[in-house]
Amino acid sequence: MKNISWLKTAIIFSSIVIAGFFIGNMHKTGKKYDHYVEVKGLSEREVKADLVVWPLNITISGNDLGQLKKEIENQSKQVYEFFINQGFSKEELTVGSTNINDALADMYNQNSRNNEFRYLAKSDFTIRTNNIERLQNALSESLELVSQGILLGSKNTWRPIEYIFTGLNDLKPAMIEESTKNAREVAEKFAHDSNSKVGGIRIARQGLFSISDRDENTPQIKIVRVVSTIEFQLEN
Q1: What share of the chain is helix, strand, coil (3-state, %, to 5)?
Q2: C-alpha angle with apex 161: 156 to 165, nearest 5 degrees?
Q3: Strand, helix or coil at 180?
Q4: Per-residue pLDDT tens for 131-168?
Q5: Domain 36-49+165-236 is classified in which CATH homologous superfamily?
């Protein structure tokens, strides 16, 4: 019976020692895992827009509805031929609707009855092309239409011409790699100052990609930007 009692005591003692070892080791490992630094890595690219959209319209006013209709149809034809002659394909040029407003039919605006012209006609066009240079050239040459008495304007006053960059997916892998590398360089500087070494990545959070104009005067040049937030393990 004494041998059995001794064996039980030995087993219990061994279990306590082993449990204590694992608890202490887990605590030590946990403390080591908590030794980390969180940094941000930046990657930027300056790129050229590869798609441009120009929504525009022509506007005519008058009092004779029949004459106004003929005039708007004639000017729409001239505008269409102008852009075709500038080298745009039929697929790049979309002819929209023509709307004619009657000032006398606007019951909510009493001042409209005092307008010099009763009718206002607008005809819409949209140019969508990858040839940025051609559109910019057409923009300069469009003064020719104005000299012919055609009032050409942009539909969107806040952004008359929209320049777009569509190649983001091709840039993503290299930019993510660069932002990660940049973050590691920052972490290594911190580790050097704290007498530590940078280990593996603990947690990585990729920021959203943003595309913005380089400045207000060159909207055809874009800045692509991403900021990654990364936690690196630090080793003594």
Answers
A1: 45, 35, 20
A2: 125
A3: helix
A4: 999 999 998 898 888 888 888 888 887 888 999 999 99
A5: Protein of unknown function (DUF541), domain 1 (3.30.110.170)
With beta carbons less than 8 A apart as the criterion, state whether 78 and 147 touch.
no
Give the DSSP letter string of 82-137. Answer: HHHHTT--TTTEEEEEEEEEEGGG-TT-GGGGG-S-SEEEEEEEEEEES-HHHHHH
Q: Terminus-to-terminus CA distance in the chain, angstroms?
A: 52
Q: Which two tokens stand for residue 57?
A: 């319209």
CATH class of 51-164: alpha beta
The rounded percent of the chain whose pLDDT value lies above 90 is 48
Residue 64 vs residues 3, 60, 123: alpha-carbon distances, Å: 121, 11, 17
pTM: 0.75
